């Protein structure tokens, strides 16, 4: 007679469940959970690691250098896989757990799946207080793991072995749902991990998960179609949800056939190639002037798969006061923003149904003619900005131009916070779909190298991630250069050294404040005239990477050609200009002191007041 239960510890049962979850990618059945990033401590080493060790050939565990960075690597993997496969990150208790909170924020803001498993203090409290426990006098059940509540889509603490029977399927369902997608957190008290329990064998049966494609309400589609057919100057905004839905080609074809210019958000960049005939570049604060003009005169805006955050909307000043929004999104919360006409559903399904609903309607050709003229002007400006000059220190645009030129279509550009998001959004010309990753939903310094480690795993030799990172972000988190060397996952890292936090210095001085504590020369350093800067090439070599420092754009081009031939992670450094930025894009709502004795700040305040007068209200 077949046993109906199997006796396992909580740690063993959890791992057995995870290895039996599957999904399909391009018709191939694969593990839903592709691996684990782990740093072990007393909170997870004696029980959870015991279970992971037994299945390491099925569910590989990769050793990280920092809890935050390994979770960022897991997020990078999930992004590279377009949310179709998920990585796990596990930590011990206390600081190991709280180090991971920032990464959870990245996943939550960007609607990306990652499973976070953290050790917790003892459920029975007999040995309290234990090593690394933060005690709350009036709330003894509170631990540092409660900090994940604010940055998790699904949060649970297992206090009885049977709870994983309901908790784990709900966690997976959350991560696989386009409307709810985000990080799932499960806290594992140390005494609970060790307990053996008779689990139903059926719980461990292989399960196939698919991402649902929810169709929209027919009345919402009909209303959207009627509104779109009134448009004289429509505009499409393609967001990250378009990429995750696999709707990039369909939306681009729709835009071309219907004569509607198509802009992208930062998260959406890469759904189509740079020279697609309907494409006009990114929109918003770091967008193209072409998209800005088209947004300002648009009467109907079709937003697809975007959160419409302030960098997309120019803090809601980019659009005409009477413009109307059709907002297509899997999440109802996003679809109803700013008085939009909502169409709630999967991007690919919604586009198909909207296309059918508008019949033979096509926008007047003058609208696309306007867009192509504006975009041609923008590309000419990029060409001029990227051209080599005799300047002693190259600009970001020039550095990006060289790297972009050498990058192959299959290589993925990865960047995050600082000046490089805006500069790459404007200057990087995407050669193949889904080869651009700028983490800007949470704008997390340190994502660049860690996220690229995850990308390298996901790409599995099909091209390499090319990281573009400033010296500030590099100094904040760089240890996964060593991780990638150890694991054999190659990346190319281009360090643009502009002597500090260049872009935030631009904002500071642009709002009338003298440069202060951002560039090295404006900080409390021994030698302000010539601060001693890091030798990034030697630093990378010390972690086992190949490395070169470049003194010119010609050096950089040669170094990039060389980097493509190496058999491991390669780091290239070059000094870059902290004061030259690519023009264009919308303005940004920032706080400026209402009263101040400095004339430069008073002038900045006047500018902000005039800017804010253009803001759409939240209706």
UniProtKB/TrEMBL annotation:
Keywords: Hydrolase, Thiamine pyrophosphate. Pfam families: TPP_enzyme_C (PF02775), TPP_enzyme_M (PF00205), TPP_enzyme_N (PF02776). NCBIfam families: myo_inos_iolD. Its EC number is 3.7.1.22. It comes from the Bacteria. Residues 221-354 form the Thiamine pyrophosphate enzyme central domain. Residues 423-574 form the Thiamine pyrophosphate enzyme TPP-binding domain. Residues 36-127 form the Thiamine pyrophosphate enzyme N-terminal TPP-binding domain. The lineage of its organism: Bacteria, Pseudomonadati, Pseudomonadota, Alphaproteobacteria, Rhodobacterales. One of its GO terms (molecular function) is 3D-(3,5/4)-trihydroxycyclohexane-1,2-dione hydrolase activity. This is 3D-(3,5/4)-trihydroxycyclohexane-1,2-dione acylhydrolase (Decyclizing). Belongs to the TPP enzyme family. CDD domains: TPP_PYR_POX_like. It is an enzyme of class 3 (hydrolase).
């Amino acid at each position: 007679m077949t046993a109906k239960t199997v006796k396992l510890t909580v740690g063993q049962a959890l791992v057995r469940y995870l290895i039996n979850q599957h999904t399909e990618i391009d018709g191939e059945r694969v593990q839903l959970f592709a691996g684990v990033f782990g740093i072990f401590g007393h909170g997870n080493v004696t029980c959870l690691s015991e279970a992971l060790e037994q299945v390491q050939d099925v569910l590989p565990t990769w050793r990280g250098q920092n809890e935050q960075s390994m979770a960022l690597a897991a997020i990078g993997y999930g992004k590279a896989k377009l949310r179709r496969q998920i990585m796990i990150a596990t930590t011990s208790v206390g600081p190991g757990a709280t180090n991971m909170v920032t990464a959870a924020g990245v996943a939550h803001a960007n609607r990306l799946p990652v499973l976070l498993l953290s050790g917790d203090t003892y459920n029975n409290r007999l040995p309290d207080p234990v090593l690394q426990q933060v005690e709350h006098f009036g709330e003894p059940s509170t631990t540092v793991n409660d900090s994940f509540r604010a940055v998790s889509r699904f949060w649970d603490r297992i206090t009885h072995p049977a709870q994983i029977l309901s908790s784990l399927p709900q966690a997976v369902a959350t991560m696989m749902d386009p409307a709810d997608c985000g990080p799932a957190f499960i806290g594992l008290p140390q005494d609970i991990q060790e307990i053996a329990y008779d689990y139903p064998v059926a719980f461990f049966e292989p399960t196939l998960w698919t991402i649902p494609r929810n169709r929209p309400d027919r009345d919402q589609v009909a209303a959207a179609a009627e509104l779109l057919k009134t448009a004289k100057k429509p505009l499409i905004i393609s967001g990250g949800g378009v990429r995750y839905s696999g709707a990039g080609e369909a939306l681009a074809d729709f835009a071309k056939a219907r004569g509607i210019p198509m802009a992208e958000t930062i998260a959406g960049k890469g759904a189509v190639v740079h020279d697609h005939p309907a494409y006009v570049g990114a929109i918003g604060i770091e967008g193209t002037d072409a998209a800005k003009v088209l947004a300002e005169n648009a009467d109907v805006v079709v937003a697809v798969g975007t959160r419409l955050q302030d960098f997309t909307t120019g803090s809601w000043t980019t659009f005409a006061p009477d413009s109307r929004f059709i907002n297509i999104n899997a999440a109802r919360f996003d679809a109803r923003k700013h008085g939009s006409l909502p169409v709630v559903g999967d991007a690919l399904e919604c586009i198909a149904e909207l296309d059918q609903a508008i019949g033979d309607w096509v926008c007047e050709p003058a609208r696309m003619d306007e867009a192509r003229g504006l975009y041609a002007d923008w590309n000419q400006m990029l060409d001029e900005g990227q051209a080599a000059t005799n300047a002693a220190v190259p600009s970001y645009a020039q550095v990006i131009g060289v790297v972009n030129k050498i990058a192959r279509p299959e290589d993925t550009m990865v960047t995050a916070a600082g000046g490089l998001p805006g500069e790459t959004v404007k200057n990087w010309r995407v050669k193949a779909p889904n080869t651009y990753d700028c983490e800007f939903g949470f704008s997390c310094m340190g994502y660049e190298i860690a996220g690229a480690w995850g990308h390298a795993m996901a790409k599995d030799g099909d091209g390499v991630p090319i990281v573009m990172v400033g010296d500030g972000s590099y100094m904040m988190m760089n240890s996964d250069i060593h991780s990638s060397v150890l694991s054999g996952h190659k990346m190319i890292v281009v360090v643009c050294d502009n002597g500090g936090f260049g872009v935030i210095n631009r904002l500071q001085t642009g709002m009338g404040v003298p440069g202060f504590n951002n560039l090295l020369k404006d900080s409390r350093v021994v030698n302000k005239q010539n601060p001693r800067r890091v030798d990034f090439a030697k630093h990378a070599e010390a972690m086992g990477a190949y490395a070169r420092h470049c003194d010119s754009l010609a050096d950089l081009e040669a170094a990039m050609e060389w980097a493509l031939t190496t058999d491991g992670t390669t780091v290239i450094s070059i000094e870059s200009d902290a004061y030259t930025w690519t023009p264009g894009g919308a303005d940004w709502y920032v706080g400026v002191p209402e009263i101040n004795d400095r004339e430069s700040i008073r002038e900045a305040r006047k500018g902000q007041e005039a800017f804010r007068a253009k803001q759409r209200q939240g209706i």
